[in-house]
Amino acid sequence: MLRLEGVTKRFGELVAVNDLSLNVAAGSISAIIGPNGAGKSTVFNMVSGIYRPSAGEILFEDARIDGWPAHRIAAAGIARTFQNIRLFSFMAAIDNVLAGEDAHLHARLWDSLLHTPLQRREEKAARERARELLRFVGLEGVAETYARNLPYGSQRRLEIARALASRPKLLLLDEPAAGMNPREKGELADLVAAIRERGITVLLIEHDMGLVMRVSDEITVLDYGEKIAHGTPAEIRNDPRVIAAYLGTAVA
Amino acid sequence: MIYAYFLVAIAVVVVAQRLPDLRAKRGLFLLLGVALLCAPLFDRNDSTFNVLADAGIFVLLALGLNIVVGFAGLLDLGYAAFFAIGAYTYAMMASPQFNLHLPFWLLLFLAAAFAAVFGIILGAPTLRLRGDYLAIVTLGFGEIVPQIFQNLTKYTGGPNGIGALDFPSLFGRSFGQNTIPYYYVVLALIALALFFAYNLRDSRLGRAWMAIREDELAARHMGINTTAVKLAAFALGASFSGLAGVVFAAKLSLVSPDLFQFQVSVLIVSMLVLGGMGNIPGVIVGALVLVLVNNVVLPQANTIAAGAGLHVDFGNYHFFIYGAILVGIMLFRPEGLLPSRQRKEELHHAAA
Amino acid sequence: MHEFLAQLFNGIALGGIYALIALGYTMVYGIIGLINFAHGDVYTLGSFFALTILTALGVSGELHGVALVVDVAIALIGAALLCGIVGVLIERLAYRRLRNAPRLAPLITAIGISFILENVMQIWKGPAPVPFPAVVPNPSVMIAGVAVGAQQFLLVGLAVVMMVALQLFIHNTRLGRAMRATAEDRDAAQLMGININKTIMLTFLIGSALAGVAGFVSGVYYQSTWFFNGFGAGLKAFTAAVLGGIGNIAGAMLGGFLIGIIESFATWKFGGQWSNVTVFAILILVLVFRPSGLLGEAVYERA
Question: Which of A189, B164, C196, C218 has its CA 20 to 30 A from that of C95?
Fold first, then answer.
């Protein structure tokens, strides 16, 4: 589904990601792990269109997407969340989700100006879908609350709902468990599994090894911008290179 | 007497803002509309409606700029340029200048369309710019446009502008020097602008504007085409200004480049800042208060001062008033006098 | 060729004024990220202060000998000092509270301050241009067949001296280093024990004082001043700062001279009524296509 081929990203002298090849199978839950500064976020930023790779190709369903503007990549079916939550703080939870649906709405300028029957119908249906998504992530009770007034864990889940609203085929989760307590992490694992049930492929960056080992089918390990290992959770756990890379860093 | 109109209108808008019920809100606006429609039947004072029509033109401008600045969060410091484009459209196509005498009603549409096109042309290069740079670029455009109108003397009459513009007519009857028809045209345009502004706010587009104002990068990653959405804001905002320009030119029967200087752009920004950017009732109140001060209070203060043997021209204090509003509001009540719930929370959290 | 050189010398003189004003824009932008819209008006204020001081000294025409040096020095230093104080007051009263507000709030405030200053000056000296005494004698020298006045030399010389002094100050003194550190990373500077408020105040003091100097020399050069001068001059100086690379002091000087020369040639080739259009078109083109300017580094938006 998503394929990276020899992707490199340089910032001046610094090589953030070096000759990375990666294949995310449709319907899978995959994880990228690695110590801080290993280049994980840079990979996400390239896939979602913030950065353009210095070399290599990024293919999504066989289309080359590197160099596309972010909104086009989103419309093609890749949605993401952000490590440091980037919700629309002063918009109600439901409006955040509705904003995520934007690329799939058909109302034209004229419809918005005049509130044509098409616009009304579409808006009603979109609202319905947004409510369903809020229910899916467990936020049905706070639809009208401003995003910034939600507790931290809920904000993470709202960000996922907003991303799902753009009807992605591939969902990129950037450290979704950061700052969560063990109970919330458990719920998150269930949510990720439920997202896959909906037929959405998930690729996540995560530091919490417990969560990664529990949900992932495949794990890629980055260190200093290089892929040092790739395999199932069991393989990764016993890989000497991975253990070496993590030596001295706190890892479960 | 003129005060009564302004105060009632302001009071109604303020009360309407506080009503939680949407129906009651609409009802109150409608009532105000009907009252304003009937007013000329009872009040025969032409100068009153002259001032009110001018006030209405500024309400129209404030509603338009609010789309760009309030909804989409793009600080436009050259908004008077579109006002100028609207006014010159009428002046060049309904005057002896080229001996074109196109009808007023057609030119309303044409000017709105021209202004929108220029909104896109001028907006397009600014799309990637950060907020403060965007403001300065729009300011640059705002300076260039009237200067070009001034320089192209052959077509625009240069610094003297174009005079003797056609009077609009309806069903074969000319408006002439009568102010009442202009007053009605302005009322109708405000009604239309309100309808559009509210619809836009509560639509996909309004939501997208809000989203890019809050976090442009996140909006882009949610699939919102920020380019298209920003251009729509520029185009729509400009078209309101174009409409206002046509009425302004027709009513004055004259245009000249000095009518569209930077001060006009800042005046409209001041209206938004005073009333509360982003909030439709707020910007209406902002516009009404400033027109009241500029066109009624200051001239009267002059008369009173002269009566007391003082030779003060309060008309010289316009800049000071706009400046004091901008500074005072930003420092002490950044959400404006009549803010939306959203803006209020936004600014109070930001300050904390 | 003769006309070309004459316009070039004109442009350099004009550019000296823009460069001095541009320094204030660039320093303030570098340190608090604000387009200090009122800065152009502080420049006009400088010429008003100088005029007032000269009038108080009883000067109304050309000066010679000791009187020339003493009176010019008093007017120049006085204007610079008063402008510096005004700049510090503006920062203290209007901008400081908004340092952490949304980005556009201080810009809107700055526009407000600009309007207030313009109005105050309009009431102070009236709405019409005011004559400024030609205190400095203006014998001219022939350079390649073009007459260049002493005032032009004075203007450019003063601008260059100020800029060199500023560079030395910023690179070789403790306070200058504090300014650079604060511009680089305010939080880190604070952690290192730098007094941020004092440093920002100093930035406004120096920037505004330079605008005061520019106000004085422009008064001498044009022999007139006007309450509204600062609006256009300010925008052009800001253009200069952007062209050179905002935040970059050498860039502000380069940009200032370039804009002066461009304006001078635009006036020559297209006529005065197109000079503003030309400069603002450059402003727009630079901001759109190379917002980092000629000497600035490309700035990446942080993800």
Answer: C218
Query: Cβ separation of A112 and B225 shorter than 8 Å?
Result: no
Residue at C209 is within a domain = yes
Fold of A1-74+170-186+200-252: Rossmann fold (3.40.50)
Residue C152 lies in a domain: no
Domain A78-167 in CATH 3.40.50.300:
yes
Domain count, chain B: 1
Residue A45 near chain C (CB below 8 Å)? yes
Q: Residue B348 is encoded by which pair of tokens? A: 């109070």
Q: Where are the domains of chain A?
A: 1-74+170-186+200-252, 78-167
The answer to whether the CB atoms of A102 and B206 lie below 8 A apart is no
- How many alpha carbons fall within 13 Å on the CB side of residue B77? 23
**Residue found by looking up tokens 């690379």 in the block:** C245
State the chains in contact with A (3 or more Cβ–Cβ pairs under 8 Å).
B, C
**In the 3-class helix/strand/coil scheme, how is C40-101 assigned residue by residue?**
HHHHHHHHHHHHHHHHHCCCCCCCCHHHHHHHHHHHHHHHHHHHHHHHHHHHHHHHHHHCCC
Q: What is the pLDDT of residues C111-137, one digit of tens each?
A: 999 999 999 999 999 999 999 998 888
Q: Which helix (H) or strand (E) holds C30?
A: helix C2-32
Question: What is the DSSP track for B5-68?
Answer: HHHHHHHHHHHHHH---HHHHHHHHHHHHHHHHHHHHH---HHHHHHHHHHHHHHHHHHHHIII
- Cα A61 to chain center, whole Å? 17
Indicate the pTM of the whole model. Answer: 0.92
pLDDT in tens, C58-92: 888 888 888 888 999 999 999 999 999 999 999 99
Question: What's B278's domain CATH number?
Answer: 1.10.3470
Backbone angles phi, psi at B157, to 5 degrees: 75, 5
Contact B144 C118 (CB under 8 A): no
**Helix or strand (DSSP H, E) at A23:** strand A14-24
Q: At what angle do helices B22-42 and B2-18 cross, to 10 degrees?
A: 170
Closest CA to B104 of B61, B189, B193, B165: B165
Instruction: State the nearest Cα–Cα gap between C303 and chain A, in angstroms.
Output: 7
- Structural domain total, chain C: 1
